[in-house]
Amino acid sequence: MARSDVIVLGAGIVGTSVAVHLAKRGLSVALVDRGGAGEGTSYGNAGVIEGNTVFPAAFPSDWATLVRVVLKRSPLANYHLAFLPKIAPWLIAFRAASQPERLAETARAMRPLFARAVAEHEALSEESGAAKYLRRTGWLKLYRTEAAFAGVARELELAAALGIANVPLDRDAARVLEPSLKPAFRRAVHWTGAVSVSNPLALTRAYAARFAALGGLFFSGDARTLHRVHPHWRVDTASGPLDAADVVIALGPWLPDVLDPFGIRLPFAVKRGYHRHFKAQGNAALARPVLDADNGYCLAPMEQGIRLTTGVEFAARDAPPTPVQFARLLPKARELFPLGEPVEAEQFGGKTWLGARPCFPDSRPVIGRAPGQAGLWLACGHAHWGLTLGPATGRLLAEMMTGATPFCDPQPYGAERFLQ
Q1: CB within 8 Å of 76: residues ≥ 6 apart
Q2: Contact 361, 268 (CB under 8 A)
Q3: Best CA proximity match to 332, nearest among 302, 304, 354, 311
Q4: 405 CB neighbour count, 10 Å cutoff
Q5: Handedness of CA 202, 203, 209, 213 (dihedral sign)
């Protein structure tokens, strides 16, 4: 039987970052996962470290968009009809949290984390030898109509109030930044403070290597075996039982598998998403990720090729993949950028990547103690921002666990907000 001060369950970008920050503070830490570091949900993102984020993703505010989603004609979202009764309470809460005043409240509550996002990645990537994966070119959000651009006026106003740098551009100015873009849009916003990642998997693996260099140990094990052996927590691993006084659950979409047996039920859901990689035609290239805001997809330059991400899909976490959104968005993407041949197999059942974003309806993560369970800590529910907030979350939770002064007030991220 092995013992450590802390067991971290989940080796995605969040769990790995937590493990690194705890190890840097002198604790003996064991990182446990069924797979390798960064191979789950953390692998499939658009690679944007969104220190510039203002508003979270929101429930559609106009009936035209909502009707298109309901009729399965929108690239923004897909759903499995049989799953709707189960997800309905979460969607109702999500819609309530998407009201303008609630979005502004969330923006302000999340600002301290986002304000540290880029700096924490830069610090961790430097000491991990991973700075080569970071691009400091910002990212570009495109709007196909003047009306769509006008719809972000409130976001830009709040960004100015919060001191978040951005540069509104007309089409010609945006194409100076990205000459390979076709003129299928009218306006753009260059969020200059964002950093992007050319290989999210390699970045997480570099952070895991840094964890190992600090003396941390990686174990292959199933988080669902977590149980109490008084006064410790125990997890069964391939190397035998592993005990610790404290456990951090950073399991992304698998959070309920571990929390439910302890009677901790939080309003949790997943938003599934897909990506494929494509070659670019000729000499076409992108210097930064580009979001087609009207259609909900991102084109991100990766080491594997141009990554095309989809909008969200509401379905059971483990349901078979249904990557139908590609048929809706590929024509739109090719209007915007000269995508070439796919890098992976195109056919259904091929190598289209599917992941599940872990989400709470108020678009805030839970960072802090688990309710009613001494020594159990949570770092979960980062939704679209797992890559962005991994290192900042790791620092905040490590400060809380070691009695240091947290760099920001953790109260807005406590699980208690769902139990009042």
Answers
A1: 60, 65, 68, 69, 295, 296, 311, 312
A2: no
A3: 311
A4: 6
A5: positive
Q: Give the number of other Cβ atoms within 10 Å of residue 219's Cβ.
A: 19
CA gap 293, 184 in Å, rounded: 12
Its pTM stands at 0.96
Tokens 């292959």 appear where? Answer: 220
Here the tokens at position 51 are: 């220190």
Element (H, E) at 48: strand 48-49
d(CA 295, CA 355): 19
Q: What is the DSSP letter of 319?
A: S
What digits encode the pLDDT tens for the residues 165-201?
999 999 999 999 999 999 999 999 999 999 999 999 9
Quote the CA–CA distance of 142 and 178 in Å, as a whole number.
Answer: 11
What span, in angstroms and rounded, lies between the C-alpha atoms of 71 and 87? 17
Of residues 386, 358, 355, 376, the one with CA closest to residue 266: 358
Tokens representing residue 158 in the block: 């709040």
Q: State residue 37's pLDDT score.
A: 95
User: Which two structure tokens, joined as six digits, stand for 278?
Assistant: 């494509």
